[in-house]
Protein backbone atom coordinates (compact mmCIF):
# COMPACT_ATOMS: atom_id res chain seq x y z
CA UNK A 1 0.00 0.00 0.00
CA UNK A 2 1.44 3.37 -0.98
CA UNK A 3 0.21 6.84 -0.13
CA UNK A 4 1.52 10.28 -0.98
CA UNK A 5 2.42 11.99 2.25
CA UNK A 6 5.69 12.43 4.17
CA UNK A 7 6.11 9.83 6.90
CA UNK A 8 8.71 8.03 8.96
CA UNK A 9 6.78 4.83 9.54
CA UNK A 10 7.25 1.60 7.62
CA UNK A 11 4.79 1.38 4.71
CA UNK A 12 1.91 -1.04 5.32
CA UNK A 13 2.27 -3.91 2.89
CA UNK A 14 -0.36 -6.59 2.27
CA UNK A 15 1.81 -9.69 1.91
CA UNK A 16 -0.78 -12.46 2.25
CA UNK A 17 -2.99 -13.24 -0.71
CA UNK A 18 -6.71 -12.89 0.08
CA UNK A 19 -8.56 -16.17 0.59
CA UNK A 20 -11.66 -17.37 -1.22
CA UNK A 21 -14.18 -15.86 1.20
CA UNK A 22 -12.32 -12.57 1.43
CA UNK A 23 -12.37 -12.28 -2.36
CA UNK A 24 -16.07 -13.18 -2.36
CA UNK A 25 -16.83 -10.53 0.28
CA UNK A 26 -14.92 -7.85 -1.62
CA UNK A 27 -16.64 -8.77 -4.88
CA UNK A 28 -20.14 -8.70 -3.39
CA UNK A 29 -19.43 -5.46 -1.52
CA UNK A 30 -18.12 -3.69 -4.62
CA UNK A 31 -21.04 -4.99 -6.69
CA UNK A 32 -23.57 -3.73 -4.10
CA UNK A 33 -21.89 -0.31 -4.11
CA UNK A 34 -21.82 -0.24 -7.90
CA UNK A 35 -25.53 -1.12 -8.05
CA UNK A 36 -26.33 1.66 -5.57
CA UNK A 37 -27.75 -0.70 -2.92
CA UNK A 38 -25.27 0.50 -0.30
CA UNK A 39 -22.53 3.11 -0.11
CA UNK A 40 -18.99 2.99 1.22
CA UNK A 41 -20.18 5.35 3.96
CA UNK A 42 -22.88 2.84 4.98
CA UNK A 43 -20.19 0.19 5.42
CA UNK A 44 -17.96 2.54 7.41
CA UNK A 45 -20.81 3.44 9.76
CA UNK A 46 -21.70 -0.21 10.31
CA UNK A 47 -18.08 -1.08 11.13
CA UNK A 48 -17.92 1.82 13.59
CA UNK A 49 -21.18 0.60 15.17
CA UNK A 50 -19.78 -2.91 15.58
CA UNK A 51 -16.56 -1.54 17.07
CA UNK A 52 -18.52 0.54 19.59
CA UNK A 53 -20.15 -2.51 21.20
CA UNK A 54 -18.56 -4.36 24.12
CA UNK A 55 -19.55 -6.51 27.13
CA UNK A 56 -19.96 -3.27 29.12
CA UNK A 57 -23.45 -2.96 27.63
CA UNK A 58 -24.38 -6.46 28.76
CA UNK A 59 -22.99 -5.71 32.22
CA UNK A 60 -25.31 -2.72 32.49
CA UNK A 61 -28.33 -4.84 31.60
CA UNK A 62 -27.42 -7.55 34.11
CA UNK A 63 -26.77 -5.17 36.99
CA UNK A 64 -29.98 -3.23 36.29
CA UNK A 65 -31.88 -6.54 36.36
CA UNK A 66 -30.16 -7.54 39.61
CA UNK A 67 -31.16 -4.30 41.30
CA UNK A 68 -34.53 -3.51 39.68
CA UNK A 69 -37.14 -6.28 39.81
CA UNK A 70 -39.52 -4.51 37.44
CA UNK A 71 -36.79 -4.04 34.83
CA UNK A 72 -35.75 -7.68 35.24
CA UNK A 73 -39.30 -8.77 34.44
CA UNK A 74 -39.34 -6.61 31.31
CA UNK A 75 -35.88 -7.82 30.26
CA UNK A 76 -36.91 -11.47 30.48
CA UNK A 77 -40.19 -10.83 28.66
CA UNK A 78 -38.76 -8.73 25.83
CA UNK A 79 -35.01 -8.28 25.66
CA UNK A 80 -35.14 -5.98 22.66
CA UNK A 81 -37.53 -3.51 24.29
CA UNK A 82 -35.72 -3.57 27.65
CA UNK A 83 -32.37 -2.91 25.98
CA UNK A 84 -33.89 0.03 24.11
CA UNK A 85 -34.96 1.46 27.50
CA UNK A 86 -31.25 1.81 28.25
CA UNK A 87 -30.49 3.25 24.81
CA UNK A 88 -28.92 -0.02 23.68
CA UNK A 89 -30.13 -0.65 20.14
CA UNK A 90 -30.31 -4.20 18.81
CA UNK A 91 -29.21 -2.90 15.44
CA UNK A 92 -29.38 -6.17 13.49
CA UNK A 93 -33.14 -6.67 14.06
CA UNK A 94 -32.64 -10.08 15.68
CA UNK A 95 -34.75 -11.33 18.56
CA UNK A 96 -32.72 -10.75 21.73
CA UNK A 97 -33.70 -13.16 24.50
CA UNK A 98 -32.29 -13.06 28.01
CA UNK A 99 -32.26 -16.37 29.93
CA UNK A 100 -32.28 -16.35 33.72
CA UNK A 101 -30.14 -18.74 35.71
CA UNK A 102 -31.72 -20.06 38.90
CA UNK A 103 -30.47 -22.26 41.77
CA UNK A 104 -31.88 -25.23 39.83
CA UNK A 105 -30.98 -24.20 36.27
CA UNK A 106 -27.88 -23.05 34.38
CA UNK A 107 -27.92 -21.70 30.83
CA UNK A 108 -25.09 -21.98 28.31
CA UNK A 109 -24.97 -20.27 24.91
CA UNK A 110 -23.63 -21.77 21.69
CA UNK A 111 -24.15 -21.45 17.96
CA UNK A 112 -23.79 -24.92 16.47
CA UNK A 113 -23.97 -23.77 12.84
CA UNK A 114 -21.57 -20.82 12.83
CA UNK A 115 -20.99 -18.05 15.38
CA UNK A 116 -24.29 -16.17 15.85
CA UNK A 117 -23.78 -14.06 18.95
CA UNK A 118 -25.43 -11.07 20.71
CA UNK A 119 -22.91 -8.60 19.28
CA UNK A 120 -25.21 -5.67 19.99
CA UNK A 121 -24.68 -6.13 23.74
CA UNK A 122 -21.43 -8.13 23.98
CA UNK A 123 -19.35 -6.95 21.03
CA UNK A 124 -17.36 -9.42 18.95
CA UNK A 125 -17.36 -13.10 20.00
CA UNK A 126 -14.17 -14.67 21.35
CA UNK A 127 -12.28 -17.03 19.04
CA UNK A 128 -13.09 -20.10 21.14
CA UNK A 129 -16.84 -19.43 20.77
CA UNK A 130 -16.45 -19.72 16.99
CA UNK A 131 -14.32 -22.87 17.13
CA UNK A 132 -15.71 -26.17 15.90
CA UNK A 133 -14.63 -27.87 19.12
CA UNK A 134 -16.70 -25.58 21.33
CA UNK A 135 -19.69 -25.67 19.00
CA UNK A 136 -19.81 -29.46 18.96
CA UNK A 137 -18.67 -30.32 22.47
CA UNK A 138 -20.87 -27.76 24.23
CA UNK A 139 -23.90 -29.70 23.04
CA UNK A 140 -22.53 -33.20 23.65
CA UNK A 141 -20.64 -32.75 26.90
CA UNK A 142 -21.48 -29.36 28.45
CA UNK A 143 -20.29 -30.24 31.96
CA UNK A 144 -16.86 -31.22 30.68
CA UNK A 145 -16.59 -28.02 28.64
CA UNK A 146 -17.66 -25.90 31.61
CA UNK A 147 -15.12 -27.65 33.82
CA UNK A 148 -12.39 -26.59 31.39
CA UNK A 149 -13.45 -22.99 32.09
CA UNK A 150 -13.19 -23.74 35.81
CA UNK A 151 -16.97 -23.90 36.20
CA UNK A 152 -18.24 -26.93 38.11
CA UNK A 153 -22.01 -27.27 37.99
CA UNK A 154 -23.41 -29.74 40.55
CA UNK A 155 -25.24 -32.73 39.09
CA UNK A 156 -28.54 -31.67 40.66
CA UNK A 157 -28.50 -28.43 38.63
CA UNK A 158 -29.89 -28.82 35.13
CA UNK A 159 -27.88 -27.38 32.24
CA UNK A 160 -29.75 -26.06 29.21
CA UNK A 161 -27.87 -25.43 25.97
CA UNK A 162 -29.33 -22.56 23.97
CA UNK A 163 -28.50 -22.60 20.26
CA UNK A 164 -28.36 -19.14 18.68
CA UNK A 165 -29.50 -18.61 15.11
CA UNK A 166 -29.38 -15.86 12.51
CA UNK A 167 -32.70 -14.56 13.86
CA UNK A 168 -32.40 -15.37 17.56
CA UNK A 169 -29.61 -14.29 19.93
CA UNK A 170 -29.31 -15.21 23.60
CA UNK A 171 -27.64 -13.75 26.67
CA UNK A 172 -27.51 -15.24 30.14
CA UNK A 173 -28.70 -13.37 33.21
CA UNK A 174 -26.45 -15.07 35.79
CA UNK A 175 -27.33 -15.53 39.42
CA UNK A 176 -26.31 -12.64 41.62
CA UNK A 177 -23.72 -13.91 44.12
CA UNK A 178 -24.74 -14.04 47.77
CA UNK A 179 -23.13 -11.41 49.96
CA UNK A 180 -23.39 -8.60 47.40
CA UNK A 181 -26.40 -6.87 48.91
CA UNK A 182 -24.36 -3.80 49.85
CA UNK A 183 -22.30 -3.68 46.64
CA UNK A 184 -22.39 -0.53 44.56
CA UNK A 185 -23.38 -0.60 40.90
CA UNK A 186 -19.71 -0.36 39.93
CA UNK A 187 -18.77 -3.26 42.23
CA UNK A 188 -21.54 -5.41 40.79
CA UNK A 189 -20.50 -4.65 37.23
CA UNK A 190 -17.01 -5.98 37.97
CA UNK A 191 -18.56 -9.37 38.77
CA UNK A 192 -20.24 -9.60 35.38
CA UNK A 193 -17.95 -10.69 32.56
CA UNK A 194 -18.46 -11.65 28.95
CA UNK A 195 -18.09 -15.32 29.88
CA UNK A 196 -20.75 -15.14 32.60
CA UNK A 197 -23.18 -13.73 30.02
CA UNK A 198 -22.41 -16.63 27.67
CA UNK A 199 -22.83 -19.05 30.56
CA UNK A 200 -19.38 -20.66 30.61
CA UNK A 201 -18.49 -19.09 33.96
CA UNK A 202 -20.47 -17.77 36.91
CA UNK A 203 -20.01 -14.46 38.79
CA UNK A 204 -17.74 -14.76 41.79
CA UNK A 205 -16.79 -12.33 44.54
CA UNK A 206 -13.08 -11.65 44.16
CATH homology superfamily of the largest domain: Nitrile hydratase alpha /Thiocyanate hydrolase gamma
Give the tally of structural domains: 2
CATH class of the largest domain: Alpha Beta
- Briefly note the CATH topology name of the largest domain: Nitrile Hydratase, Chain A
Describe the protein.
It is a single chain. This protein is an alpha/beta fold and 206 residues long. It has 2 domains: 20-51, no CATH class; 54-198, Alpha-Beta Complex (Nitrile Hydratase, Chain A), CATH 3.90.330. The chain is built from 11 helices and 4 strands. A two-stranded parallel sheet has the order 1-4. Helix 3 (55-67) packs across helix 4 and helix 8 crosses helix 9 (142-148). The longest helix has 15 residues, at 20-34.
Key words describing this protein structure:
about 210 residues, alpha/beta, Nitrile Hydratase, Chain A, two-stranded parallel sheet, 11 helices, 4 strands, globular, disordered N terminus
Spell out the blueprint of helices and strands.
Elements: H1 20-34, H2 40-52, H3 55-67, H4 69-77, H5 79-85, E1 95-100, E2 105-110, H6 119-122, H7 127-130, H8 132-140, H9 142-148, E3 158-163, E4 168-173, H10 185-191, H11 194-198
Parallel strand pairs: 1-4, 2-3
Helix pairs in contact: 3-4, 3-10, 4-5, 8-9
Amino acid sequence: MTHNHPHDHTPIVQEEKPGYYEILEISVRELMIEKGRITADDIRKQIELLDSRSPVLGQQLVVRAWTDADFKKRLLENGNAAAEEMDITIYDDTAFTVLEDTPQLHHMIVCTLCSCYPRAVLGLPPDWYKSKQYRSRAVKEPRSVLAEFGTIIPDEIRIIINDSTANQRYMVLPLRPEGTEDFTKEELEKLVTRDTMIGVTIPKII
